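sanity check both lines:
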Amino acid sequence: MRHPLVPAVIVFLFVIAAPILSGTTRQAAATPDLDSKVRAFLESRRGTWHDLNVPEVDGQTLHDLVVKHKFRRAVEIGTSTGHSGIWIAWALAKTGGKLITLEIDETRYRTALANFREAGVSDYVDARLGDAHEIAPKLPGPIDFVFSDADKEWYTKYFDALWPKVAVGGCFTAHNVTMRGEGIREFLDRLKTVRDGDTTIDSKSSAGISITCKR
């Protein structure tokens, strides 16, 4: 015989679970309002992103990578004034994720915070002011996505610190890899030795992005 309390328990569980499931759904997809706000902000600032920021085409590449692979746990080394972070955070708004972004320069950091707010992506960004040499190695895993765009001579060290924490299927990306500056050759040579990852170079811009994804 069915216990008389069973239907009541089922109804209770449904009432409790429904708001939780509904909230998760809202978090995992950017609203049309947010999409419009981000697009309008980026359009209003087109051609003005200097001060160590990525070009628009590279921002789009980062956004598309996050969305395509449904990454949720992202790290950016080198916030600058927030251009790449906005593209990444916008993508994370669609996957239900969040970006930890690191910047050592306080003026750029404060400007980035204002840009994140104006673009409407602040809820998807954990911006931290400090030295990435110290902060990055201490970040917990697992991590789905890394974008390195700070001091090039430290690229290899950033990679070695974070690659073990990158989840299978996750990607470590780095900017300016076709510019052959100090530290870039060492970093690219290091990528050739990675046995559990595959590297491609995206060259839509003259700066280039290396994309190393873990098998």
Notes: The mean pLDDT is 89. The beta strands are 73-77, 98-103, 125-129, 143-148, 166-175, 197-202, 209-214.
